């Protein structure tokens, strides 16, 4: 081998190594999921039983729905800390309408709505909270972290005020009042699969299509990649940002309805700290905290990692306090690995440019 060929061969090997490393980095979430399943199946033989897998999948559906909305927000360059509180507020509003109806003291009457109207109203409420987040961020230039932190406390406070901190129990409704059927949403099955999982699949498919195949999706990426350039190119940045927060609020309200339906009860503390699970799932799935990068498919895999990790630790008997520590470390490590991947991609792009 000539003196010129040796460096070229070394360069080729280095490029191959970097390419292999990049492939492993891109598949890191899927690899982590497989490893977690293998580890917990050894530690807890019942982990792979049908009942356990269904339970894990239902929990994953909740994390995934929150993470789908969170992914859109993060891609646009923002963050939403209010999703967990919206979950609690949505459950309390639905529970209150089922058990107490809508009191019109001025007329001395109480109106009871059917379940479909209650669900639609609750979804509109969650979307409205998201719109408030978007309004604060786009119209008053409040930082997303601060704006959603404020609505997080406000939504949780309203959830507590709704029942004076108490639970709305026995949300089965009444045939006489025409508001029965609410438990089906959380406990029902279609083709043997829980309705919550079908909802996750449907919302995930719609979000993935919107993100990749529609102008709104392209605008979300553009705003997160370079907001100033997006604005100069004619994209209505304010509207795009508001829409992603509205979608996030909508997804959170869905989760609130599912949880209240499954438990047949609504508690104001439901969803506490769930925003961390949503952020973790999105970041694990490859969504960059810097904005402009992310996929719904990756987020769904990330949600499975969080779900398997959470339920697996419960089955093994890991303390709840240690569970919080581990989840925190997972988020930090995921961000570090994501940054390492971005640096490696930039380095490879420079090498290709240099020939």
From TrEMBL:
Tagged with keyword rRNA processing: no
Coiled-coil segments on the chain, per record: none
Localisation: Cell membrane
InterPro entries reported in the protein's UniProt record: ABC_transp_permease
TM helices/strands, residue ranges: 20-43, 55-75, 81-99, 111-136, 142-161, 182-211, 243-266, 278-309, 321-340
Alphabetical UniProt keywords: Cell inner membrane, Cell membrane, Membrane, Transmembrane, Transmembrane helix, Transport
GO cellular component: plasma membrane
Pfam families xref list: BPD_transp_2
Protein name stated in the entry: Abc transporter permease
Recorded topology in the membrane: Multi-pass membrane protein
Single GO term (MF): transmembrane transporter activity
Organism from which the protein derives: Lucifera butyrica
């Amino acid at each position: 081998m000539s003196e010129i060929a040796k460096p070229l061969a070394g360069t080729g090997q280095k490029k191959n190594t970097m390419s292999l490393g990049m492939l492993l980095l891109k598949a890191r979430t899927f690899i982590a999921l497989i490893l977690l399943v293998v580890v917990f199946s050894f530690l807890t033989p019942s982990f792979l039983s049908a009942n356990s897998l269904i339970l894990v999948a239902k929990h994953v559906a909740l994390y995934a729905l929150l993470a789908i909305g969170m992914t859109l927000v993060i891609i646009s360059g923002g963050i939403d800390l209010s999703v967990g509180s919206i979950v609690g507020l949505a459950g309390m509003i639905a529970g209150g309408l089922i058990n107490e109806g809508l009191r019109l003291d001025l007329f001395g009457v109480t109106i009871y709505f059917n379940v479909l109207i209650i669900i639609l109203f609750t979804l509109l409420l969650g979307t409205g909270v998201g719109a408030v987040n978007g309004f604060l961020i786009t119209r008053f230039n409040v930082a997303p972290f601060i704006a959603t932190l404020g609505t997080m406390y406000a939504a949780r406070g309203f959830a507590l005020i709704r029942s004076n901190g108490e639970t709305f129990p026995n949300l089965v409704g009444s045939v006489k009042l025409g508001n029965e059927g609410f438990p089906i949403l959380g406990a029902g099955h279609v083709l043997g699969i829980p309705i919550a999982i079908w909802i996750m699949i449907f919302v995930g498919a719609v979000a993935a299509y919107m993100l990749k195949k529609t102008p709104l999706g392209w605008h979300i990426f553009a705003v997160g990649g370079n907001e100033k350039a997006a604005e100069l190119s004619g994209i209505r940045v304010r509207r795009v940002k508001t829409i992603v927060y509205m979608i996030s609020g909508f997804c959170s309200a869905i989760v609130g309805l599912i949880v209240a339906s499954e438990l047949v009860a609504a508690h104001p503390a439901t969803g506490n700290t769930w925003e961390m699970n949503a952020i973790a799932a999105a970041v694990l799935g490859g969504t960059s905290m810097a904005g402009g990068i992310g996929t719904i498919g990756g987020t769904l895999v990330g949600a499975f990692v969080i779900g398997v990790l959470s339920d697996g630790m419960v089955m093994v008997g890991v303390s709840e306090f240690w569970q919080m520590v581990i989840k925190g470390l997972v988020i930090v490590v995921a961000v570090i690995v994501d940054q390492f991947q971005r640096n490696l991609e930039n380095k490879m792009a420079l090498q290709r440019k240099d020939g």
